[in-house]
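Run log // design_07
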């Protein structure tokens, strides 16, 4: 620290000397030119003649004045730099150093010069904004790691427990099948979690490049919905559809299928026995509007604010299996294709997800 302070003092002294010499040369040139012009004008206009002794005395006095004025200007400039430059720069450097040491709460206070807001204030504003972004990213990273760890440990613990139970001697065939099914379900959930994490990572890092093609959106919706036929029949769900014909979009079909599959999966999953699911497709101008409505458990207003965040689950008890990644994938895909998604829900009455995407006027490429 002492060595650092010594180096700083040396730099300040050298800088002050350079500034003094600069001011001295500048004033000496300006004052010499002014004095020469003044004396020449007096001799020419008024016919005044100056003796060599007078000029010599005036030159010495002028030189002393230049030295004094240079010293005054240098001191004023040093004070000005201390207040207007060195102090705010030190604040900025202190903030940067705190960030480098891991303190993401570091902020630079407003820098107000005598001229009002200047470039240093703009730098401070951008620094604070960057620090806020870093802080938010760190929170998301911490939450992401925490949630991933939790979601990975849950199916692994299930598989470990069932594996231990399978090792029991004299195990009945019924129990053996039950435990094996538990392992299979947990491993499937783990595989889906890893798959969704990889997909979302690729989407967020723009490693998936959408390939546009023109196709019939209604046909795609029906195909995706039919893939859940076994699930809805097992729950005896009533399926209603109102799909407008000849609605074409120019999108990446594989990406959009992620949206529909996740929405239909959630609708079936969260709707109880003998419930109802509605699928609607209509057009509004140059927009295709898809609605998926269920009569399931619904979500509260607070949950609805976070439902598209990674790993967020309204069912904190995990009574209904999921990994909180599906709707985050849906939101990211909708953002990529330039659409919009919203949800309306009431606890105990069900939910309606509305997706709005651009459409083509006809099916021509």
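design_07 sequence
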């Amino acid at each position: 620290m002492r060595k650092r302070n010594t180096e700083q003092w040396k730099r300040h002294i050298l800088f002050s000397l350079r500034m003094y010499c600069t001011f001295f040369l500048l004033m000496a040139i300006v004052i010499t030119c002014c004095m020469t012009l003044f004396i020449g004008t007096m001799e020419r206009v008024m016919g005044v003649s100056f003796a060599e002794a007078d000029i010599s005395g005036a030159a010495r006095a002028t030189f002393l004045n230049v030295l004094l004025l240079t010293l005054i200007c240098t001191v004023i400039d040093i004070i000005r730099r201390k207040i207007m430059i060195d102090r705010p720069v030190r604040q900025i450097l202190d903030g940067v150093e705190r960030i480098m040491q891991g303190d993401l709460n570091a902020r630079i206070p407003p820098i107000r010069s005598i001229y009002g807001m200047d470039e240093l204030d703009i730098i401070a504003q951008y620094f604070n904004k960057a620090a806020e972004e870093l802080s938010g990213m760190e929170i998301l990273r911490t939450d992401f790691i925490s949630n991933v760890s939790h979601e990975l440990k849950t199916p692994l613990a299930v598989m470990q427990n069932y594996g231990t139970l399978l090792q029991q001697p004299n195990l009945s065939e019924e129990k053996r099948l039950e435990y094996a099914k538990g392992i299979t379900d947990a491993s499937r959930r783990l595989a889906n979690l890893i798959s969704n994490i990889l997909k979302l990572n690729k989407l967020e890092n723009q490693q998936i490049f959408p390939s546009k093609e023109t196709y019939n959106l209604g046909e795609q919706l029906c195909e995706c919905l039919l893939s859940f036929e076994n699930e809805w029949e097992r729950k005896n769900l009533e399926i209603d559809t109102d799909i407008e014909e000849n609605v074409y979009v120019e999108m990446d079909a594989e990406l959009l299928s992620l949206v529909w599959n996740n929405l239909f999966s959630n609708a079936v999953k969260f709707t109880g026995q003998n419930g109802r699911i509605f699928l609607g497709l209509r057009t509004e101008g140059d927009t295709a509007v898809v609605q998926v409505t269920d009569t399931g458990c619904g979500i509260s207003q607070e949950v609805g604010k976070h439902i598209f965040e990674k790993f967020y689950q309204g069912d904190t008890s995990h009574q209904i299996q999921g990994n909180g990644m599906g709707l985050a994938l849906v939101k990211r895909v909708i953002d990529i294709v330039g659409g919009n998604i919203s949800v309306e829900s009431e606890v105990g009455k069900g939910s309606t997800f509305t997706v709005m995407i651009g459409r083509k006027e006809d099916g021509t490429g």
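The beta strands are 213-216, 238-243, 248-251, 276-284, 287-294, 340-346, 350-358.
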